[in-house]
Amino acid sequence: MSPPERTVVGLSGGVDSAVAALRLLRAGHAVEGLFMKNWEDDDTLSYCAAEADLASAEAVAAHLGIRLHRVNFAAAYRERVFAAALEELRAGRTPNPDILCNRYVKFDLFLRHAREQLGADAVATGHYARLERAPEGRAPRLLRGRDPGKDQSYFLAAVAPEALARARFPLGELTKDAVRREALEAGLPNHGRPDSTGICFIGERDFAQFLQRYIAPSPGPILTEEGRELGRHQGLAFYTLGQRRGLGIGGGHGAAGPWYVAAKDHERNALIVVPGHDHPSLLSACAATGAFHWLAPPPPEGARLHAQVRYRQRPQPGRLEHRSGGGVAFRFDTPQRATTPGQYLVLYDGAHCLGGGAIAATAPPGRSGAPGAARNNEQSVEAL
Fold it and tell me: In the listed set 275, 290, 310, which residue is the last one of a domain according to the structure?
């Protein structure tokens, strides 16, 4: 990270962003912090969490002797991230708001604010990812973080390449344990603060209960694949493929195991469930996207790559196909469980993250993963 830069760190109140700022200071950079408020409503829990985060960020900034700025992106977040997520949910898909937040807030609004209002050369976050600098005029290569249990390159797959050129990830070479140790040794006041979990705007609240404030319930039947009704659901938007908990039907009804969501049938407003974690109807041999966001030159047709269809999934080998309209299809060597429309298909060549795109369709195993065999409400791969 040389020569020295004027860098604005997104201080969230957590230990990761605190150590990111610490490492930049030790490397000789001019560092300031920026606390972003990206969500607000009349919920007391939301308010208290934001106040606690701000207090922690202020304590870190004071300890490091750096200035802490504050900015409110809540209105833009609602418009560009939350509204898009609600639209996807109403359409029966399962969006990934954290990927949208990185693309439209942290590495767009935050980056522009830091550069235009605070005179920053670069911005930094506590993401566990690495950037390999490229020759002048070319975008850097996004690489997995060294800690396989914390790698967050998946969440950065939709960020604009020009934004990555101004981004810094000081934790990319570290493990989480090393970050905790460094925070403790430096006396950072939040060294023992627990990691935040849950979707960015929901936190650890009940997902379905939270969504019912914005999406009206639309009850319908919970059906087996044979059409037998087992219970009632609250609305298709409140469920995702592969889900087990919250169905209210237990493991009985003659099933060999617990029931899992396999599909959403919008014509009948029905939630289709199957018994058993590894039921064939939960598997997909192929996933296809709409327009794919490339961070690197697209590999040729038939390229052997690895893919993830969710965070923390082990990288899965398969073969790339290019689709019309800028989309891709990825045919897995081994069918994947609960590959969910709306989630992101992210492609890797070794540690190199090539980019990502929202899953628009899947095809089940059989017929060599033949396109056009999509289930229920899922759009045919062939139609993309």
Answer: 275
The CATH number of the domain holding residue 349 is 2.40.30.10
Active site residue 200: yes
Pairing of strands 141-144, 129-132: antiparallel
pLDDT on residue 250 = 72
Tell me, yes or no, whether 120 and 221 share the same domain. no
The answer on whether 254 is annotated among ligand-binding residues is no
Q: What is the pTM of this model?
A: 0.91
Q: Is residue 266 part of a domain?
A: yes
Contact yes or no for 339/282 (Cβ under 8 A): no
Mean pLDDT across the chain: 90
DSSP state of 314: P
Q: What would the pLDDT profile of 64-112 be if each residue is shown by its tens digit?
A: 999 999 999 999 999 999 999 999 999 999 999 999 999 999 999 999 9
Q: What is residue 266's predicted lDDT score, i.e. its pLDDT?
A: 94
Residue 1 annotated in ligand binding: no
The structure tokens listed for 360 are: 């628009």
Same domain, 179 and 243: no
Tokens read off for 214:
């914005």
From CA 347, how far away is CA 316, in angstroms rounded?
A: 9
